[in-house]
Amino acid sequence: MVEINRTIEELLVDYADALRDGSIPTFLKSLSREEGNSIACSDEFWEGTDIVRVLNGVGFADKAVLPNVSLFTSRVNAEIASRLKKSRGPLRRGGATRTKPVKETEETERAI
Amino acid sequence: MDKRLRKALKGLLDSELEHRQRAMESFVRLTFENFMRCLYRHLGNEVECEDVLENVYADIWEKSEYLAHIGDERELLRTVYMYYMRKRLRQVYRRLNRNLHLSQESLSMLVAPQISVLEMLSDEERGETVRRMLGKLKARERRAMELWMEGMSIRAIADELKTTVGAVKMLKYRTILKLKEQVKAMNIKVE
To answer: Which pick of A25, B4, B144, B189 has the fewest CB atoms within 10 Å?
Structure first.
């Protein structure tokens, strides 16, 4: 995947291999500017990616090692609890950190 | 649709927090495997799938209304993919994009595309369809695809077929396009 300016055929084959091997970020990083442009313009590439995903699903999704669902459920619960906490927002104490308005400060200084 | 799944979906929209939490746990248990397999088709990596799915479930918790009128499991998967998974899939690679030579649109299409007709099928139906499609190919094309689906590298396939790496790449590319033509023909039939 370090070759420069691969043809669209090679790019599709490399994408298929990367998807199968779980190394999509490496594939994306390996793209040169010209390769990126040729991908963007190639209908054949985009049509091919559909099939590659389906083949990947049929060939390898069954072989994926699924984690323990109970452990995963507790991860989801923790994420939900964290979001609930965030949505309530931090508690603010009334004016403890509030900066005094400039006018008020000036008046106090004058009085001193 | 499975009775427990229907109940869990209903519970997700409940106004009482405790009911919703119980429904969410049940929903995760009932859908986890199916959702993982769907994400695996896009990411090809279990660890990444878990991270994305964790956020997908939390998003569903925050905004469950898209799941209000789900009729069957196929519709559920399509809705979850369209409204929750795609957004998260895009985020996975957005941070990478600063160093990439791809437009944002290309990247989105690569990591979170529209769902295809084949992806709408159940696992069994999809497996059967792919086997049928492979059966229509020439022996050499079918062999190359089968070896690839067994996990062999291009070089190993070239050795097996007694040809060059370049020839295998070309063969695989042409075969993928042939399979796409078959899917297109299927699409016409579906419509």
So the answer is: B189
